Amino acid sequence: MKTYNVGVIGAGFMAKAHSMAYAAMPMFFWPAPGIPVRYSICDVTADLAADAASRLGFTKSTDDWRTIVNDPDVDAVSICTPNDSHAEIAIAAARNGKHILCEKPLANTAAEAKAMVDAVVDNNVTNMLAFNYRHTPAVALAREIIDSGEIGTVQTFRGTYLQDWSADASTPLSWRFQSAIAGSGALGDIGTHVIDLARYLVGEINEVAANLKTYIPQRPLSNSTVDKLGAAAPGVETAPMGAVDVDDEASFAVRFADGATGSIEATRNAWGRNNFITFEIHGSAGSIYFDYEHRDELRVAYASDRADRRGFRIIQTGPQHPYGDHLWPIPALGIGYCETKIVETYEFFKAITDGTQASPNFADGLAICHIVEAIQRSHLTDGAWTHVTR
Question: Is the domain of 165 the same as that of 189?
Answer without folding.
Answer: yes
